Amino acid sequence: MQSTNNMAIDIIGSALLDFQKGNYSEDIVTKSSLDEEDFIPISHLFRNFEEMPKIEQLALQQCKGKVLDIGCGAGSHSLHLQNNGFDVTALDISPGAISVSTLRGVHKTTCADIMNFSGENYDTLLLLMNGIGIVGKLAYLSTFLQHAIKLLTPNGCIILDSSDIIYMYETENGYYDISDVENYYGEVEFTMTYKNKESTPFNWLYIDFDNLKSIAFDNGFECEMLFKGSHFDYLAKLYPLT
Question: What is the domain range of residue 159?
Answer without folding.
Answer: 11-17+26-240
